[in-house]
Specification:
One of its GO terms (cellular component) is nucleus. GO terms for molecular function: cysteine-type deubiquitinase activity; ubiquitin binding. InterPro entries: OTU_dom, Peptidase_C65_otubain. The protein is an alpha+beta fold and 499 residues long. The chain folds into 3 domains: 189 residues; 177 residues, 3 helical TM bundles of succinate and fumarate reductases; 80 residues, Peptidase C65 Otubain, subdomain 1 (Phosphorylase Kinase, domain 1), CATH 3.30.200.60. It contains 12 helices and 8 strands. The protein has a 6-stranded mixed beta sheet with strand order 1-2-8-7-5-6, sandwiched between helices. A hairpin with a 2-residue loop joins strand 7 and strand 8.
Length: 499
Amino acid sequence: METWIIILIVVVVFFGLIGLYFYSKKSKSNSKKKSNQEHLIEGELEQMNSYYNNNQNQNKNYIDTYSYDVKQDTQTNQKNKENYGRDNTKQQNIYQNNKSSNTVAIDIKPNNSQHNMHLKILQQTEEQKPQQIYQKIDHCYQQQNNQNAQLQNFKDDQEQNIQNEQLQQIFDYQQQNNQNVQQQNNQDNQLQHYQNAFQQHNQDNQQQNDLNVDQQQNQNTQQVIDEVERINVDISKILGNLQQIINETSKKRELAEEYKYYIRKYQGKSELKKNYGLTLKASVELYKYCNAFREVRGDGNCFYTAFGFQFLSILLFDYSLDQFNEFFNRIKQIELPMKIFVPLTDLKIDDKELEKQLLDEFQRRMLKLKLIEDINQRQEQFHTEFAAYEQQSDEIDGCLYGLSTLFFRNYSNYVIDFSDAKDAVFDREKLLNWEEECNSNEVVIAELAKQLNILVQLIFIQNSENIVVREYGNNKEHKIILLIKPGHYNIGYQIFKQS
């Protein structure tokens, strides 16, 4: 990453953190101020409610006291009236007694006019007092209502003020938030701009690196071709021992021309059923796994021919060029031998320098096939080279089968050597014996499937009515089908018809 881009990203992040700090500090200050204002308003409301309750209690006490005083005055006037009536009756009795006894006495007569006036005054007083009481009560209620109205207006004003302050605070907060969002968006846009520039820079670098890698791969590929082409001058010497082994073994056998090829032509369902003499039921079961096949020459190398031909097909037609090169690079890293021994003879290949040259020649031939761009042409060339049992041209010399057999016999021995199941291969020496089959071949197949990351379907054709299928590995994208009838392997295919 460029230094100026890193510095610019650090500066943007720094100012973003400072803005976030001041924004959080201001939010805390606003919330604290709002909390203080709410406490003040609540205190004023509690004080007004207390004043209202005290005023209400005073009005009630005043009304109760005034009502009691009026009641006392009324009772006093009633008593005075009763006393005056009794006094008047007593004087009238005294006057009647004196009159009947002719006793000289003071003529006390009730003063009716004065009495009537007194009664009238009492009556007016009694009539006026309730009216005054009612007026006082109405005045108290009016005063109380006015105070209630003032208190309600004050509450409404305070609530309105609180709402206005809250709205103003919300508006200020939203405005501040919008400013912060705008600022954050500006920072994000600026950061995005830098990221886009950085990504574009990385893409340009990646494209340049890819171009360099492709050029390097092409150079490496060309170097491999050139290096092995230089060895091609002495190719007859390199392949001399292998050709001698082939000439002393498989070429000495008298066979019909069609059976001399190491792999034969592709055949379909009917030929498959006929070749193994299967019943209809057994053939239907077999077609679930295999519906075409290719016969392999019946020598002791038939397993390595059937397995090797199919895995080389994966290398040539399924693997990319990078995967192809990676596979052979691993082979070079482990320094895979190319040994072989022919039982009961002195024929062998057991020289490290020669084995290295044979491995290079095998890789050169496979790479040359891989670089054929036309797939159909590549397939035809591969099948022809692999099947050839003798020299047909400068390129087709009948040795690809032998090189493939050396490669997969030695690779099988290498895989077993590092396997936990190597003790199960009790006749391991046969892995490096030309035209000899290992009796523990299923252990070898299981380890090859694991190491090469492929799926191997092993189909046993026990008789015309019974087949048994066993699978090793789990990568269905790269599958090898082996048809085995006791003592011989053939190449199987599963062809799906396209609608």
